[in-house]
Write a structure and sequence with these properties.
This protein is an alpha/beta fold and about 400 residues long. Helix content is about 40%, strand content about 15%. It contains 14 helices and 13 strands. The two termini are about 30 Å apart.
């Protein structure tokens, strides 16, 4: 997923290794501007604006105009041209890479499975699959996906995920290869730099409540707004920030503010990452609700920044949070349960301050960028060693 910050952050861990890194977009998208030091494969494409000079576009159309026409002509004379799996197979055959790594399953993993069909079973490079978010936990329960996931898990050689929960699920789907160490699939965090953005003072002194604003197939921000309404009697002196707010959430937030008098600001995606971190760093509590996830990046960010996390129990937050000690885990579709957690977070100063201490230690030990980058590099070295030594 070449437009994802998670892809850019993962690849950034490989800088300085002297490795030849190639990125094949699972879909035709505008690549993320933070991509660096790689070769991007997009046949007959115009170089996207804002792309870093260290990114070489393989197949770049050399003229100011005519790329779209060239693609149409190519599709007319080569029926396979529009098929991205065919292009990926062609790219792999040309490069003969030591490792093919699918970052995410429903787009990159399925595409790689399609490309693999163009090879004999023993002729395809070593294949690593990374599970992002709900790739197996949710989609594995859907009839349209379960069979394809099973086929992919039987075909790949290595598996990487960020939840112990998803290791067991991979085995249930027939994975018989080696599971790599469990750590965040987005890479590590600059923990010390991030903490410097915190508002000074203990968590209990802060008067902001943060809510992640996703309301979609997984997100349940409207449940969070209802929970805030149920706690209106405790919200005097507090303000609410809803970030990444979608239009229906913004509408509901405005009506809630009018009804209760609670100041609510909504942010729909214009903030920088540092803005989001400062927001968590000035919050007493941060709420994230979804019916499915892996380890929520926003949960980890809240923990790093000292905000008391209230997180749905449908991700693998329980591998980071002991409910009632360094956060609270709740049902994502129960406003009453979320409201009870919020009441506790708003009234128990000792709980939120103690949680901030626990989370500061935990995130420093498990999330530091230098640590995770070293683990990532060692993972690739381990995977590549059998194939490279055989050559």
């Amino acid at each position: 997923m070449a437009n994802s910050i998670h892809t850019a952050r993962w690849i950034s861990q490989l800088e300085g290794q002297g490795w030849d890194v190639h990125l094949f977009p699972a879909e035709e998208v505008c690549p993320h501007p933070r991509l660096r030091n790689l070769k991007l494969h997009e046949p007959l494409s115009v170089r996207p604006p804002g792309l870093d000079p260290s990114v070489e576009v393989i197949g770049e159309w050399p003229l100011p105009k005519g790329a779209s026409l060239a693609r149409r002509v190519a599709g007319k004379f080569a029926p396979s041209w529009p098929d991205r799996a065919w292009h990926l197979a062609r790219t792999i055959r040309k490069l003969r890479p030591d490792i093919v790594h699918s970052l995410e399953i429903q787009h990159a993993g399925y595409l790689t499975l399609g490309a693999r069909a163009h090879f004999a079973a023993d002729d395809f490079p070593t294949w690593v699959v990374s599970n992002w978010g709900s790739d197996i936990y949710l989609f594995g329960r859907l009839a349209a996906h379960a069979g394809k996931i099973r086929e992919m898990m039987a075909a790949c050689d290595y598996y990487h995920c960020e939840c112990r929960r998803d290791v067991a699920l991979a085995r249930e789907f027939g994975f018989e290869g080696e599971v790599m160490p469990v750590f965040p699939v987005t890479g590590g965090f600059e923990v010390e730099r991030m903490r410097a953005l915190r508002q000074p003072g203990p968590t209990s002194s802060k008067r902001r409540v943060v809510l992640k604003g996703y309301q979609n197939w997984a997100g349940r921000a409207l449940v969070g707004l209802r929970a805030i309404e149920l706690c209106a009697d405790l919200m005097r002196g507090y303000r609410v920030t809803v970030y990444l707010a979608q239009p229906d959430v913004m509408l509901a937030a405005e009506l809630l503010s009018q009804k209760t008098g609670i100041p609510i600001e909504c942010e729909s995606g214009e903030w920088t990452h540092d803005d989001v971190l400062r927001m968590h760093g000035s919050a007493r509590t941060s709420i994230g609700l979804s019916i499915s996830d892996a380890i929520s990046t926003s949960l980890l960010e809240a923990m790093i920044m000292g905000s008391f996390p209230i997180q749905s129990h449908t991700g693998c937050g329980d591998e980071w949070v002991k409910s009632g000690e360094n956060g609270l885990l709740v049902h994502p579709e129960s406003p009453e349960e979320v409201a009870a957690a919020l009441r506790r977070a708003l009234t128990d100063d000792a709980l939120v301050d103690r949680a901030a201490e626990i989370n500061a230690r935990l995130t420093a030990e498990r999330l530091d960028k230098t640590l995770i980058a070293a683990m990532t590099v060692e993972m690739y070295k381990k995977i590549a060693s059998p194939r490279t030594s055989a050559r």
